[in-house]
Design goal:
With 630 residues, the protein is an alpha/beta fold. The protein is 47% helix and 17% strand. Helix 3 runs parallel beside helix 23 and helix 5 packs parallel to helix 6. The protein starts with a helix and ends in a 6-residue tail after the last strand.
């Protein structure tokens, strides 16, 4: 009381303001907490009240975005995307597609599968072939598969071709088969003449073309020759795959591509009709007509958005997971560690392969007594040589601990991606995997001329001739270039030697198929770089056999960076759809999706990584391949 009386008017005003701020803070925090509790209860209620899976249900598989090994964004971002009704490019995990198709093939409640390919983005030919194999298995199990799209690019069509019936919209673009290409942007003139940047390149291997975009204005003859060799192999396999699926001759399909201009003109420019004439589709239907067909053959449901008793991929996976319960909890494990993205030093989150973080996941599998074998799933064009070696050392330690390691290559496992695979007990690759590219390079850009043009100059003194020699603002002396080239050659010899040791070959034999050259998975097997042709499921089965685990006596567990309880909660809310119903009309979703040019983004990432000075040594050695995605 006395203290309160002694306060002056200014003090009383300040105290009043603080009390108001403190009250507002507590009010906001309490409201946020209450909102989270309400949402949590809503999610639980939505799960408990989930409709049972009825007989004669149609499973709708409609992947949106790219098919990936693991999400490249954190659960919070995915939850926000779902909650805000984001319709931009997304991601679907390959493991989820395979798991759903495997379960549906044995599930008597699933009568047929409705495959929508409109939202699918290029994800790599090997990845598409794994999904196509799952669709074939569905058909062989007796499930009818119906595919539909407004139009179908060739990657999406590989999946659609596996269906019993394929339909495209009569107003759509039909089926566009154009062939495979490997084109890139070349910045040589821009860097050299427009920006006055001198890029010093050091490499081993005449086919190591990853540096060419920074010093040339067009691809070298060696690069074109090598690329065309593996591209043709993958393309011919693609043609054979769709010919087999559709009961067509490869020659007929190729003739339709070669004569596309005249053929489309003959049908009045109607690309959908051209696809029908070529036997690529079974009919031309609108989306509504296809849904009416599904309702006629299945069970009509007036309350369903598509008019038929159906369940989407996420909903079906929730049923599959609930059905498993705790039956697999204490079984021995085959662990899967995913290495997807560019290989970089240090700790990295989803979307990149961190030398420290990925090695830690392998170490976790090694120290877990429940893990009997490990599958390293590689989907990476490479990156840092040092980070690649960090991961490779953990593979060796796993083997030394008596745990089999099987490498499973996705659509690309080249350069550093091959480095981390080479010491596995067995290497699996799809015939259309992009692999090899065993080579090393380093790049040092110099900005002396750029600064000169701006009137900025570098000068000073050093205690030795090499002090400051690696400064990007000073001209590079020939002796410095010799040091860097010697370092790159040493790492290449080390790379080749490790491959030779892991593959049981001589260094000279490996050098003949290395030197930066890219191979398809089938070509790599013929040259002793790969052991078996197969996908992720074959690799997991092999790892289990090596650990003497019988079918059904083990479970597969993905070893990933742990999520906090709050992140797991957000991921669950995103999948439940509870927030999407609340915020689905928000325009914020459109502003959340920011897309960059993928080609430019890859170049900038590689250029930045190459410029990043290593902790020790003159230059960061890179084992990277600019491999295309189609």
């Amino acid at each position: 009381m006395n203290e309160a009386r002694r306060r002056g008017p200014i003090a009383r005003v300040l105290v009043g303001i603080w009390d108001a701020v403190n009250f507002s803070r507590r009010l906001v925090l309490n409201l946020l907490f209450l909102l989270l509790v309400v949402l949590f209860v809503a999610v639980l209620a939505s799960r408990e009240a989930a409709a049972p899976l009825l007989e004669r249900t149609t499973l709708v598989i409609a992947p949106e975005g790219r098919i990936v090994e693991q999400y490249s964004v954190d659960p919070t971002s995915r939850m926000l995307s779902r909650a805000m009704g984001q319709t931009g490019p997304g991601e679907v995990q390959l493991r989820d597609l395979l798991r759903a198709m495997d379960a549906a093939a044995k599930d008597e409640r699933i009568e047929r599968v409705y495959l929508r390919v409109d939202g699918l983005l290029p994800s790599g030919m090997a990845t598409m072939r794994e999904v196509a194999a799952g669709l074939r298995a569905l058909r062989e199990s007796g499930k009818q598969v119906i595919a539909y799209g407004q139009g179908m690019p060739q990657g999406s069509y590989l999946l659609a071709a596996q269906a019993d019936e394929v339909y495209v919209d009569p107003m759509g673009s039909g089926v566009v088969l154009e062939g495979l290409a490997s084109y890139g942007l070349y910045f040589g003139e821009a860097l050299r003449e427009k920006l006055d940047v001198d890029v010093h390149v050091f490499k081993v291997g005449e086919f190591k073309s990853a540096v060419e975009p920074y010093i040339l204005d067009a691809a070298s003859d060696e690069a074109k020759q090598a690329d065309l060799y593996w591209l043709n192999d993958i393309w011919q396999r693609y043609l054979a795959d769709i010919a087999h699926a559709r009961g067509l001759d490869v020659a007929r399909i190729q003739a339709g591509i070669d004569g596309m201009a005249d053929g489309i003109a003959a049908v009045g420019g109607d690309m959908a009709q051209y696809a029908l004439q070529g036997g690529l589709v079974d009919g031309l239907m609108t989306e509504q007509q296809v849904e009416a067909l599904l309702a006629e053959r299945g069970v009509a449901d007036a309350d369903a958005e598509n008019g038929v008793r159906s369940i989407d991929l996420d909903g079906y996976l929730a049923h599959v997971d609930n059905g498993l319960g705790s039956t697999l909890a204490r079984r021995p494990q085959v662990a899967v560690v995913v290495a997807e993205g560019m290989i970089v030093d240090g700790e990295q989150g989803p979307g990149s392969v961190g030398g420290v973080s990925t090695a830690a996941l392998l170490r976790q599998a090694r120290e877990d007594d429940d893990v009997r074998a490990v599958v390293l799933r590689v989907n990476s064009p490479g990156g840092s040589a040092y980070a690649s070696e960090q991961i490779n050392r953990e593979v060796e330690l796993l083997k030394a601990a008596g745990k089999p390691v099987v490498a499973s290559m996705g659509y690309v496992a080249a350069s550093g991606g091959y480095w981390i695979s080479m010491n596995s007990d067995r290497i699996y690759a799809d015939p259309s995997t992009i692999t090899g590219s065993i080579g090393v390079f380093g790049m040092v850009p110099n900005f002396t001329r750029t600064l000169d043009r701006l009137g900025v100059h570098s000068d000073g003194v050093g205690t030795t001739r090499y002090a400051g020699a690696f400064d990007l603002t000073r001209p590079m002396e020939p002796e410095v270039g010799r040091v860097i080239q010697a370092s790159v050659e040493h790492i290449y010899r080390n790379f080749v030697g490790k491959v030779a040791q892991g593959r049981g070959r001589t260094p000279d034999a490996i050098d003949e198929v290395a030197r930066g050259r890219v191979w398809s998975g089938a070509q790599a097997r013929d040259r002793g770089l790969v052991d078996e042709l197969g996908g992720l499921r074959e690799a997991i089965a092999d790892a289990a056999r090596r650990a003497e685990l019988a079918d059904g006596d083990y479970r597969v567990r993905y070893v990933e960076q742990p999520l906090s309880p709050f992140a797991q909660f957000l991921a669950g809310m995103g999948r439940s759809g509870a927030l999407a119903a609340m915020f689905g009309d928000s325009a914020l979703a459109q502003r959340l999706a920011v897309r960059a040019l993928p080609e430019l983004e890859r170049h900038l990432a590689a250029f930045e990584a190459a410029m990043d000075r290593p902790v020790a040594g003159p230059v960061r050695a890179m084992t990277y391949c600019f491999c295309p995605t189609f």
